[in-house]
Amino acid sequence: MRIAVFHPGAMGSQLAAQLVAAGHEVRWVPDGRSQASVERAEAAGLIGTTFADAIATADAVLCSCAPQGAVDVARLVGEAGFAGIYIEANPLSPKSLQAAQDALPDATFVDAGVVGPPPTGGPSPTHLMLSGPAAAAAADLWAETAVTPMVVGDTVGAASAAKSAYALYNKGKAALAVLAFQLAEKHGVTDALTAQQVRADAGSLKDPGLPDALRSVAWRWGPEFDELGETLDAAGLEGDAARALRKVWSRLDE
């Protein structure tokens, strides 16, 4: 099958590499992308082409980018008349997910969410949550690869909800750890804080360098927490909790 991927970042390039390993022909659009993206795409075995060619020849499109760009990608692909399977693999709120789906009237829309690290064969599995009428067909694309597809429902939105629930816990915990280290540093008690790593629930407190280590992803995790806030609001839950934690990523990204 021919697949177009937008855009091969740290996660998208590895998802695409597994598609190549499964025997699919995967294309991407290098125009306007960084040298780092070019290197990732080449390492993954992707074929560089124009946007028009990528869409015209694709049976399926995988969109895996920062959440703030997902709806724009969907609109561009929809305006090109794409009518294949569109796999939306970004952490989106119900509102943003609906906007992406509405932008693709001719496509078969699959909701997706990635939980875990990029699929490189490590000990932690990469779960690709999938939902929608064509979720099973999308799952088959990654058969016998380092990606573990999980069909979580036949309704668009189920996969995003599963991804959002885990991201809220996992990245929310990271945000709290960042705040804890910053508070400890202000009072000169970082050693006392890291000493608590011996406790079963304190694994995030092992490395006082965590705030600096997370600066490189803050630009992407911040908008994800915007989406999480809207997702919680839509469920009648406390969206302000996610919006408060979003400020942690905003500060790291300054």
TrEMBL record:
<dbReference type="InterPro" id="IPR036291">
    <property type="entry name" value="NAD(P)-bd_dom_sf"/>
</dbReference>
<dbReference type="InterPro" id="IPR028939">
    <property type="entry name" value="P5C_Rdtase_cat_N"/>
</dbReference>
<feature type="domain" description="Pyrroline-5-carboxylate reductase catalytic N-terminal">
    <location>
        <begin position="3"/>
        <end position="77"/>
    </location>
</feature>
<protein>
    <submittedName>
        <fullName>NAD(P)-dependent oxidoreductase</fullName>
    </submittedName>
</protein>
<dbReference type="Pfam" id="PF03807">
    <property type="entry name" value="F420_oxidored"/>
</dbReference>
<dbReference type="InterPro" id="IPR008927">
    <property type="entry name" value="6-PGluconate_DH-like_C_sf"/>
</dbReference>
